[in-house]
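Quality-control log, excerpt.
Job 1 of 2 completed; input and output follow.
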Amino acid sequence: MEDVAIVRTMNSIKPGWVAARCDAARPIQNVRIGKEGEKIKGFRFPSESYIKMSQVISPIFAWISSDAFEEAKFPPLNWYSDDVHCMDLVRKRYAHFVSASYVHHIGSNTIGMNAKQLHEDAMPWLKKNRPEYAKAWFA
């Protein structure tokens, strides 16, 4: 919540998601992946101490503004729902952030382990309802 308070002081930015870092998430949130060329110091990457902006996050442990929550609804998807929701909010001029906070995440156990099937299940909805995302992400 300290990072949320900082983000909320940025007057020119409408805050959407502020998400914790973890050990099993997309690279922008993953504490195991530092910035290119960054070296670990004291068991951490120095960049872990900073809030960073991102177009998409995984809301594994996250805060969202009530305004943003009301503006966009999660799509009826398993895979790619985070991406669609984030991009829908970006189109409405919201910004998302990765916090300096950390939570442990066991990763994908709640949505399934068959990535190919999860992708195939999501594609019909994406192609019908957000064809621009499907084209951009899977050209």
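Job 2 of 2 completed; input and output follow.
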Amino acid sequence: MNFWAYVTTPTNGHLGPVAGLVIALSLLAIVGGVWLVILPGLISSSPRWRAVLVRKEIGPKEFALRAELLMKVGVGISVWCSVLIVSLLLRLVGTPGLITRWLPSFVLLTLPLLVGYVIVYRLLFYPRYREVCRRVDGQKTYEPASKQSSKKAKTDELRKHKVVLLPTKAIIGFVLAFIVYYIATTAVSLPTSLPASNHDHLWHQTGTILAGFLGYLMGLALSLGDDVRPLVPFLQTRRKESMSSRQ
């Protein structure tokens, strides 16, 4: 049996032990994703958590960059695992198009893309954005102090991080994935061994909604660092100034 036949063959409405194990692990991953989402709030509001989780003092701009990465990765883990669980549970619905492994396989194929981009962002882009944020925070330290104490002012600044979880890229990704998946599943004819009803309305509606969430995750990942990208030329300018001063 080839891979395509394995993916599109009905599973007779049963989950199986492997699918049950995947669902259990996904539930644990959702808990971890939620923890990542609430972690920046704990750090900014509790000195005790900040002392445990943050090894050195950081400025508000750098903290906002960290918070964005943690929160978007946490949301991504929770949403992706939820989509995977739903795609597996749909085998129990009884509709021929939903009891195949097509939807779970499609969800699994998006995981390397998401993880790969996050790794590339963390290794290549994040260090440069962090350096920009540190320079901005360093400039702000030379500004005149306010009436508040420096410690309280810094705590208030760290609380001002705001991570947008519905950026334009995520909305575009949701809409594009929704449309492309619907057209693809309408145009592509699956093997004749499947019942003719595998393209019924429930199959299309459910599959396109799940695909839309996967597109949302891709857009959310691509939006990492959007607030700092315009500041990258600032870093390049500062480097040129420092090199000219040394000369």
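Post-run check on job 2. The CA atoms of residues 71 and 152 lie 24 Å apart.
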